[in-house]
From TrEMBL:
SUPFAM superfamilies: Roadblock/LC7 domain (SSF103196). It comes from the Bacteria. This is Roadblock/LC7 domain-containing protein.
Length: 119
């Protein structure tokens, strides 16, 4: 597989870091930035978050899919977006809360996903 390019995500206002993660293994397939956030550790932990949310949605018999999961911290937003084309993968993005626009960031993440190319 060719190296996946996440560089377009760095143009999102408040960008700190991003990873494309395999939700089954918790491994980051591609990473960019991160600052003081350990993207490998975050990838692994957030894979568990995605699996847990899917289990709950299944138990509740929700006839719907997860568009994104937002974790709001006092200084950061953590966005988790399972890919529409490949449910085993998700994008994880860390944003500086003071410098980002959450609604616009979600829109830009969705647009990026639609342009993401897998070799």
């Amino acid at each position: 597989m060719a190296k996946l390019d996440l560089s377009a995500l760095s143009s999102i206002d408040g960008f700190v870091g991003a990873a494309l993660v395999d939700s089954d293994s918790g491994m980051a397939l591609a990473k960019l930035g991160g600052g003081n956030v350990d993207l490998d550790l975050a990838a692994s932990g957030n894979a568990e978050v995605v699996k847990a949310k899917r289990r709950v949605a299944s138990s509740l018999k929700l006839d719907d899919s997860i568009e994104d999961i937002l974790i709001s911290l006092s200084r950061q937003y953590h966005l988790i977006r399972p890919l529409e084309r490949n449910a085993a993968l998700f994008l994880y993005v860390v944003l500086d809360r003071a410098k980002s626009n959450l609604a616009l960031s979600r829109h830009e993440l969705k647009s990026f996903e639609q342009q993401l190319e897998f070799a």
